[in-house]
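Q: Here's a chain of 319 amino acids. Please give me its 3D structure as tokens.
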Amino acid sequence: MGSFEQSCTEALGQPLCAAEIGTLQVNLGLRCNQSCAHCHLDASPERAEAMDWPTMEQVFRAAQNCRCRLVDVTGGAPELNPHFRRFILRLRSGGCAVQVRTNLTVLLEPGMEDLPEFFSSHEVQLVASMPCYTEENVRAQRGAGAYERSIAALRRLNALGYGVDERRTLNLVYNPGGAFLPGGQAGLEADYRRELGARFGIRFTRLLTITNMPLGRFRQLLRRDGQEEEYLRLLRAAFNRRTLDGLMCRRQLSIGWDGTLYDCDFNLALRCPVNHGAPSHLRQFDGDSLARRRIVTGDHCYGCTAGAGSSCAGALVRG
């Protein structure tokens, strides 16, 4: 089978291009309190990469320039960036809607205990990693104690209205526990609601299913187990042209901790910045040209178009 670029061109009649910038996704750095097995960025407590305050100011100006609808803050564990709270306050005071991607367990780290209240006070939307509703599967991906700490964090968030009140969104994220595609998002969401509700009384807004990308630590596991080529064949064979319109790269722009611009967080992991003549750094940010840019693709992109599709907002098509 041909490359992803060829698959897109055959399906669309032209290379893959952006349609708008509805979301700016901002990676505040790779430091994390965990070292998850599926992490495409190899985030860990040992990583030192972090966005500085002058770059955060550039992000704010870019958000104003392109009038995006959402600033999606991620990492690593973005909460560990020393300027994290100041950055959130800057965005919210400027009228930006803000979403934070949290691994939940960081909310129980020393000095972070009041973050749930901070999020609630400033109406920050949350997307929380919860790769399964069972202890065994979460432990396999995230380590011992991660499940129990995640449950404790979810209970605290529920007590503040997250996942309960309409204004306090709490979406959970499911990642497969191996070299296979996610199951149906609706069915998995029903399972999560039943199990987490019955066992712990936990509520949430939506479940998002995300395919494991053959990058970073997950790619290392695939190679260790001799499954890399098999998994890549699975993704290619499951290519679904109906996912192309909803691909996150078409309506989202990713910003690295050093201000480099990427079409998505996965291209950031590969250090493949925006190209084809569009600005590749915040210093040259031009919302109009970036909203029409040609997207840099590679065969890892089959992960977003396999089956029902995958994005930072979950599945792209039904069935």
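Q: Can you summarize the key feature?
A: The longest helix spans residues 185-200.
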